Amino acid sequence: MTRAGHIDEGEVSSTSRAALRVLATALLDDLDVLTDRLVLMVSRAQPGYARLGASAPDALRENLAANLERGIQSLGGFVPEGASPDDTSRETGRKRAREGIPLEAVLHAYRLGAQVIWEGLLAASRERFGGRFDHDLLTASGWVWRVFDTRSAALVDDYRREESRLRSRELGRRHAFLNALLDGERGDTVLAQDAATVLGLPTCGPMLCVVALLDATADEPLRSPREALAARGLVSSWHVRPTDVVGLVALGDQPPSEVLAALRPAATGRVGASPVITTLAQVAEAYPLARTAARTLTAPGVAFLDDRLPEALLAGGSELTARLAQVAFGDLLTLPEPERATLLATLDAVIDSGGSPTRAAQRLYCHRNTVIYRLHRIESFTGRSMSSARDRLLFALGLLAVPLLDHRRQDGSGFSR
User: Which string of DSSP letters, residue by residue, matches 137-162?
Assistant: First the structure.
């Protein structure tokens, strides 16, 4: 075979070429009958084609007839001048991709078409010519099926190209609608309805906005979140943006904890979830809250904003956070790291123990007097007292601020991304 669909004298004998021309001419005379047979076969074999036949019977029949005709012309060696042997196959691939027919179904229909042509060639040889061309047809059979394979490959190529184009266009539409929601067009109910259709989400009902930060340490902060949520019966839509990955999750009748539990194993970066919203029009309000929740984390994980409100207040302004830590701890922050860490851990244990040195000592596996000694050192360095309710609050906030500041220094990007 030289060019696809044209007879190559090196592959097919002159007698076989002549036989194929005679038989192809006979098949073209019976094209309507062959088309009727193929329409029936593909409609029975593939539900997608049955639906096409029900909604647009003339269009389906015309397409199948065109493919049969071009296939027969290719075998007979008389494709019209200026036409491509692949043209109907490529057009079919693009058309079926736009109609959403699965590629497997399209290829099955194409194989059925090849079967109809091959059986038609055999029948023409035996019924019209008394089996005169059977031997020549058998000799050329390998080449005939290579022609069918070439047409099939052309169909697959254009199907996938069109599918990719459609997917890119659909992705662009989804990004456009998401950006419109994030831009705060909250009063536009038409936008919310259109966005719901494109994103595959309900217009109303409990939802979460989830944000995974694209930190330098995690190129893929959340792996396959759609699949992880779908395993729990949760519908979601996800989009990659320059600084983060944004997801909208429809809760249905499930609590937010189900979303968090599903996403935690998939989190390789910092991920935050907003409070529950009830309409897509609230996405613009939920998005910054979800980002803030993610920024409260100093290691990979999933944070629900309502569970980390104190940290969220601190993460919201890095300058204020730094100042709070300095005012709370003063010179204590200048101590060598091991000593600083010991004193801060002791303070944390005392606060978590309701101010009791005894219970704090049990948590820290040390003597009560050791805890009291360390508290005196803390008060000496900071100028503050554990007996003051305001100073205890400042200490508690400072203990939340220090890890955030340490992470900012290590990350080098701060919290204002």
Answer: HHHTHHHHHHHHHHHHHHHHHHHHHH
